[in-house]
Design brief:
single chain, globular
Length: 412
């Protein structure tokens, strides 16, 4: 059931991309792509990865401590949201976002951060199904009704309609998440947490946040660079191509990683070398099969689907799609050594790989653009992910190999 909800969510988001390309102007699709990219990055500035601290406490702690942890989490979010608003306003001046688009980025980032944190907290509390229901309501329920509405009512065919529906359903998902926590009937809400508690959380979250922002920046600034290098039409096409390519990752998260990486972590924690190898092989096989199958299907089907869209813009830059598809394949292959490093608590290599990925992306994009390469940004994305894969592979080689679980000598 959980996997089914994730697949339906993936399908809905994929249909949304094509629907927007069919009924909206390239300028509106470009605006949607920019707002979606920047709100995705800004989401992590709101929650600051503090969930990496609070969810760990919830997962490992007694139920009697959950309410106090949640209270501390909410208090942190309130302060962090204020800081977010202070920091992002001057940053907006250096982007190509209009004032209205920046407003949507701020509002959507805050509501998205709440939704993501609620889903993660519910998972840590042992309610993964309810967590996926929250995800489904936030991301999987609104694309199809939205497209039906813009089909039936031509006056609704604008990017503003998309943002309004997105916000309303996201808020509904947040409300549902709050209900899920309320049903736990937790006690201890009045327990006060001192500054040392928050200081520990900030210290832990800061490391993860830095790595996350490096990677999220790559997924956001790419559209900004396309806009500056090639204009709105190219951004519109890029948004569609990236949406399709990134569906590969969503498919792997739902069908492969969500099953294999917990087994990998458990095997490492229990020093079960055989189970570790089994989980790693299953992950590698799953990634190889899904990447190959998805790539073949996407290369064959996308030109056919784009043929039904009246605007020729989306068929004019198919070379960008092939590069982005290759980049996404490399990204997903890099998740195999990523989870090996994660299982062994070798976080520094993961952080380093994200920094190198962002640097490689910027160097590749600006360097190739200076040389007159037409698809400089897609090639830059590929270069960034290739660099990230190399650093992760080096991390695995330098710190224990593919199976760091020590072999246990037989007794007898």
């Amino acid at each position: 059931m959980t996997t089914g909800l994730r697949f339906v969510t993936l399908l809905s988001k994929s249909v949304l991309v094509f629907g927007l390309a069919f009924w909206l102007t390239p300028a509106d699709v470009a605006a949607y792509g920019l707002v979606a990219a920047y709100s995705g990055l800004a989401t992590y500035l709101v929650n600051a990865d503090f969930y990496s601290y609070s969810t760990r406490l919830i997962a490992k702690g007694e139920r009697s401590t959950w309410a106090a942890t949640l209270r501390g989490h909410v208090q942190f979010l309130i302060v962090q949201t204020g800081l977010f608003l202070l920091v992002t306003t001057p940053i907006w001046l250096f982007t190509d976002l209009a004032a209205g688009q920046f407003g949507w980025v701020v509002v959507l980032a805050i509501i998205e951060a709440l939704g993501l944190d609620l889903a993660r907290i519910l998972t840590a509390m042992g309610s993964p199904f309810f967590s996926n229901v929250v995800l489904f309501v936030r991301a999987g329920t609104w694309p199809l009704p939205l497209l039906l509405a813009v089909w039936l009512v031509p006056g609704l065919r604008s990017v503003q309609t998309v943002f309004v529906v997105w916000l309303v359903l996201d808020a509904l998902g947040v409300g549902l998440g709050v209900v899920g926590i309320w049903r736990k009937r937790l006690v201890g809400w009045h327990t006060r947490l001192g500054w040392p508690w928050f200081r520990r959380g900030i210290k832990i979250a800061a490391t993860f946040l830095f790595a996350t922002l490096m990677l999220r920046a790559l997924f956001s600034i790419d559209r900004e660079l396309v806009l500056r290098f090639a204009g709105e039409n190219r951004v519109a096409a890029y948004t569609v191509y990236a949406g399709v390519a990134q569906a590969m990752t969503a498919l792997l998260e739902a069908g492969v990683f969500s099953y294999t990486y917990p087994a990998l972590l458990r095997a490492h924690a229990t020093a079960d070398r055989q189970a570790y190898s089994k989980a790693l092989v299953a992950m590698a096989r799953g990634v190889a099969v899904v990447v190959a199958f998805f790539a073949v299907c996407a290369v064959i089907l996308l030109p056919i689907l784009l043929g039904y869209i009246p605007n020729p813009t989306y068929r004019s830059f198919l070379g960008d799609f092939h590069i982005l598809l290759a980049a996404q394949a490399v990204y997903n292959l890099s998740m195999i050594p990523h989870y090996v490093l994660y299982a062994g608590d070798r976080d520094r290599w993961i952080v380093a790989s994200h920094v190198v990925a962002f640097a490689g992306f910027l160097a590749g994009s600006f360097g190739l653009h200076a040389l007159g390469v037409d698809a400089a940004v897609p090639w830059g994305v590929l270069a960034g992910f290739a660099a990230m894969l190399c650093v992760k592979l080096l991390g695995v080689a330098k710190s224990g190999g593919w199976n760091p679980v020590p072999a246990v000598a037989e007794v007898g």
